[in-house]
Amino acid sequence: MKKCLRLLVLTSLFLMISACSSEAGSTNHSSQGEDKIEEVNQSAEQSIKVDKKLLNVEVTLPAMFVEKGEEMGEVLKLTDEDKENGISKKVENADGSITFTMSKAKHKEMLQEMQTGAEDVINELLNDENFTSFKELTFDKKLRNLKVSVDREAFENSFDGFGVLGLVFYSLFYQVLDGRTEEEIQMDVTYIDVLNQEVFDTARFPDDIKNSDNEMVEENQ
């Protein structure tokens, strides 16, 4: 089940992040005077670089988070809706990453939306009759560490593990917006038996996704 979960996480991330790249936006403002640039991160070609200016923010999604295929052309088009919502530029880079520009206000709003969205998913999981094993789910402030307290027996005999998919998306995309480099982006999940408070399993994304891909390649050779 764990391998299926990781593969589904990968597919879901590609689809959802591409959708966010094409739909996100807010009111755009022209920069006036000299931009004040704070270099948040500098790294190799596939790093995530967030240049915080006076009014605009440039966010670069590394190639590993960009869906490949014919839809890329549609994602890169600057639509009338994008312009109305303040997205002023979307560019595909040579390494396959995508840089888009939004207002600083929208950037802050999207970070808050990621946190609120994660909280909503947690509440839904705890109140969904289809996910009965979950007892408590807690994120840290930066959405990097998730602790999942469950009825272990019920959890291991169900597909409740798929419930964390949405939280993986919110965590990784939040970190992209927050300016972390590709090497820094990670989400650690700790599964805890609610009966004795013992840790019985852990997962790390996106590392586990990459490992699953490598295993599939080896199996197919």
How would you summarize what this structure contains?
This protein has 7 helices and 9 strands, in the order H-E-E-E-H-H-E-E-H-E-E-H-H-E-E-H. It has 221 residues and is an alpha+beta fold.
Strands, helices and their partners?
Blueprint: H1 2-23, E1 38-39, E2 50-52, E3 56-61, H2 72-76, H3 80-84, E4 89-92, E5 98-103, H4 104-127, E6 134-139, E7 145-150, H5 152-156, H6 165-177, E8 187-193, E9 199-205, H7 207-220
Parallel strand pairs: 7-8
Antiparallel strand pairs: 1-2, 2-3, 3-5, 4-5, 6-7, 8-9
Helix pairs in contact: 1-6, 1-7, 4-6
Mean pLDDT: 76
Number of helices, counting only DSSP H or I runs of 4 residues or more:
7
**What is the string of SSEs from the N terminus onward?**
HEEEHHEEHEEHHEEH
Number of domains: 2
- Spatial strand sequence of the major β-sheet: 1-2-3-5-4
Strand content range: 15-25%
Protein name: Antigen I/II N-terminal domain-containing protein
Keywords: Signal
Features:
221 residues, disordered N terminus, alpha+beta, elongated, Antigen I/II N-terminal domain-containing protein, 9 strands, 2 domains, 5-stranded antiparallel sheet, signal, 4-stranded mixed sheet
